Predict the structure of Protein TusB.
Amino acid sequence: MLYTVSHSPYHCDLSALLRLVTAEDEILFLQDGVMTVLKNSESLNLLLNNPTSLFVLENDVIARGLSGQISDSATLIGYNQFVDLTLKHQQQLAW
């Protein structure tokens, strides 16, 4: 399943999300959700204890002036790769 997170970690129950995901799932952070994977953040530490693949929409990182502040544990992707993720996962859940 593809989980998309569009809200700031301060307005999202990340712990509840992490109880649902499995190693086969992937999480995409977009809009204000990109703040979840800032280097050395508490929310990132929660994510790193989980085997799920992490992706971040690069345009949203740039729009928020966060270039260079995103953890290397998350893969920056563009819109084409976003489409590829949606095609890969038949089920998706916006968080």
